Amino acid sequence: MLRKNFSMLLILVLLITITANLYSQKIIPPDQSIKIGKLANGLTYYIKYNSRPEKRAELRMAVKVGSVVEDDDQKGLAHFCEHMAFNGTKSFPRQELVNYVESIGMGFGADLNAYTSYDETVYMLKVPTDNKETLLKGLKIIEEWAYSVSYDDKEIDKERGVVLEEERMYRSAESRIDRKHMQVSFYKSKYAERDVIGDTNIIAKAPYSVSKRFYKDWYRPDLMAIFIVGDIDVNEMENLIKENFSKYSNPQNARKREEYPMPFHDDVLVSVETDKELSFPTVEFTILQDRIDRSLMENSKEIAIRSLANSIINKRLNEYTNKPNPPFRFSSVSFSRYLGDKDSYGGFVYANGDNVTHSLEILLKEIFRASQNGFNQSELDRVKIENLRYSERAVKEKDKTESNQIVSRLVGNFLDSYPIPSPEYNFEKAKELLPQITLDDVNRAIKDMVKDKSVKIIISAPERIGAALPTKNEVMAIYNKIKNEKHESYVDFIPDKPLFEKTVTPGKITSSKMNTTLNFKELELSNGVKVILKPTDFKNDEILFSASSFGGASLVPDDEYFSAENASSIISSSGMGPYDDSQYKKFMSGKIAYVSPYISDYMESMRGQASPKDIELFFQMINLRFTDPKIDDNSYKAYIDKAIQDFNDSRNDPDGAFSDTLVSVMSNYHLRHGYQTLDKINQINADKALKVYKERFADASDFTFYFVGAFKFEEIEPLIEKYIASLPGKGVKETWKDDGLTHPKDKFVKNVYSGKEFKSRITYQYYGDFNYNYKNVILMMALNEVMNIRLREVIREDKSGTYGAYMRISPTKMPKEQYSVSIGWGCSPDRVEELSTALEGIIKEVQDKPLEDSYLQKYKESSKRNRETNLKQNYWWLGMLQNVMEKRMDENDFVSYLDYVNALTVNDVQEAAKKYLVFDKFGKFVHYPEAKK
Fold it and tell me: The pTM is what?
């Protein structure tokens, strides 16, 4: 898997680095629960016990080499070496490694993966730990990735095709324009010569010895680290690492791992590039900075100060997005790691439509306004409160944090020296440090970061913007003008009212009963509302909520449909209580709670999350979402402007024409289920949207409310009586209305021609009738798992025809019981028919005779393993309770789930394939480049 190095730049900066500046040149102490060591051969290891999830361990291997160290004849082979690690090692020939991981219930991609970047390659593996053999084999896989990849010549040749198809998949306007910018982005550095995907000619034709040379030169102990985090015995794992990894040595006369600098430059560098197929414009403003070692105590305060300053600027920029004709849809300013030996300060915006110049002006204006005038004390106070609150939350969740989050931090420590203190250390130092940080500190920091040298301004835009796009000279003129002009100070709004000001008359809980099977309490309220309560200990600082009722937009007439479809989003962006959106966000500083409404075709619902500390505010927000919806005029206009710009921008994307065709044809051009158009956007009306919303949420008695998480019955029930039992309840029970959506039933082929890149996408679609019961659903999921394995084995591995092929088969219960199948992959246009024939062969194979039992056993094992982790997840329980209450399953299904799974036979899967994969009725959509017309 490819990953740009930028994805590593923003790793939990503030929570990790708010520590006291107490001892010069001392390292921020790592969490003492992490065992860190180094073998005599230079290999580093990190081991930590963590019980979330239980019976699992996250294993990683990081190598401090990526594309930047490639020789001229190896461009692309760092990434190719990563791929070869999955194609045979000493103990796992060819595809046995993937087969083994699937056999223990883990998935290729989800639990077995890797990525390559400019400076590193990281391998990822999750294994069960309740069977010691699987843990030992997992460690063996890591060991053999490091030192015993087979590099079989036949496997090299087969993998060339897969890597080339990955390169083809990433071909796009974005990738083309990134290459054009590289000489500015990575000015006069080695990084400008070493794109991660590399040279396709080298990938296709490099002698076997060349890729083997990369592995031999760079995969060695002194450049590696091993990470084990999970439900393990730390001392045992340390002994195993010493026993298994100490025997390896570094090569004689080992090549030096050069560090490649990112040079400063005096000039302002500008790159303005366009592409016909680019969806929307972006603006990047970067100032190179000296690297700050984040592991040192003496630098902690400065990192914290800079992070606080950037948080304030980000909040200022965010206010523009809810103004009419917003200049951009997203913005971000940060101080972060860059490539080579530099940090960077700067901003990034996704501009709206033709607003490139305006977006650049605002980004620069807010950065230079802050540099000139500084910040307000009220702004600083809010971001301090926020960061202290999240530091506190990290302590509360320290024993409930997922292992994959922890191991990512450890990898960041090895690769980039990010500190890894304990949550308690962070919180205590935050409490000590934050009060010491003054307004003068953050005002000084922004001045230090905003320098007049090593500046890069990079603009990417669709060609259609044309004359509205500034030239390089115009960009320089804008930069100099805004840098030199005097900006007005920012005027801050300070919330001074409570969010919830009205008086309510509490209702009553009229009945209460425990469900001992699923361990939840069901309440009936005096206004007719039903409430489901399931307290858990899975998280210490998390309460999840949802409320749902049948009906949705299916009950509104066609002339209100598009207003209904967008009503909840418009209302969500209009603030709450006495505040508009930007004021509301300021009020919520330091509070952890949100409630979002939704109106879908067949349901109206709300979802939310809160910290127990903010539980009463949380209930007030729920009440307000029902009783006091509003549409702010500016927010409404901004929403419509953004929708129009999104539509206009999407027209450039060649994939958009393909998706639009698929949706339209498969919905038989149904008014309510087609793709977005300007006519549909123009039908969105603020008055109609508010009217529909009020109608859908006027009667709470038709809703079932669900709460799952860290609460006690005696604490939450009084709040339910006050804020939910007091909601209007009319006692009217609604259901959805079938809107008449139908799908094509006969086989057809639809070709779509768009885009300049020589690549295709194939999608097969089918809808059929389904007898909805839980056993049938499980059987359908088993068929899905088996087919995905066979698609990987045949289309990707045997044929080397794609980077990834998939099948998604899923059932629905409303408005009618049916199922849908989608099968697809990307490939070369000249292999469309060959691979389509291969798919037909796979389906026929599964239908004609039972597959080997090993395929079904993989599904059974993954079901068991997923069940183990799901049972300890609040989100999973929230969905499960809704399935039970909404009659998509019952308690017996829940109890018997694994019995249903284990009872499946290969004959059952064969019969399901015959029933559900009706190949002679599939609609086939093929996306060809426009040159194929």
Answer: 0.94
